[in-house]
Amino acid sequence: MYKIERKSEIISILEQSGKADVGELSVLLNASRETIRRDLQEMEDSGILKRTHGGAVFARNHPDASIELPVAAREIQHSAEKDAICRKAASLIREGDSIFLDNSSTCLYLLKYIPPKMNVTVITNSVKLLSESAIHASPSHLIICLGGIFHASNHSLYGNTALKNAADFYPSRAFMSCSGIRPGNVTDASILEVDLKRFMIERSQEVVLLADHSKFTRSGQVFLSDFSGIDALVTDDKTTKEQTEFLSGTDVRLLIAE
Description:
Number of helices: 9
CATH architecture of the largest domain: 3-Layer(aba) Sandwich
Number of domains: 2
Mean pLDDT: 89
CATH class of the largest domain: Alpha Beta
CATH topology of the largest domain: Rossmann fold
Shape: globular
Strand content: 15-25%
Helix content: 25-40%
Strand order of the largest sheet: 6-5-4-9-12-14-15
């Protein structure tokens, strides 16, 4: 099991029980205690959890579905599924597109699947995504960052300045994620940044929602959009037909990443 997979499992265990024991993690993840301790130390250094005697707890109170974890934690969660979703979503991008990528951990995986020779303008409010763009830098990709107030735990920007900057653009496509999906609407966790996401939904020619299977069992604390504002939904193959059945009554295209 790769390190990122172990860390994803550790977060899942913390979400379920609120704490994790080194010995139990060692058995469950088939890794040595020393390896687990190193993983926990790295996760504590990233602000995800707090180490305790013999184990770990979340760095803050045990989160419910409506509370957004720091981006350092979210990018680890369901990493394999997010990677597959973004590989599928990248096939929707066309030469000459201008695309908006939100601050979600899912969109961090999308950049590497944009062909390096494809001329694309990427607009984002994610500082974390800017760092990723340096890794996958291409002279054909123009990266534009919206200004605003810095949200430290999300590594993103929000507020009136971000909205004013966003008003200069009409993206071909907007790619964004959410906290929860249920029949009728899409919800998000961050009240601070939802205005920008709603604005880009209105401005974009096509809106593509990227959501792994866990989003179908959760609900965020703030309304993001109904499905009239969504053109396509890309999810992974762990999402059941029952969970997406309600989409048959909408115009949303459902794409399954394998």
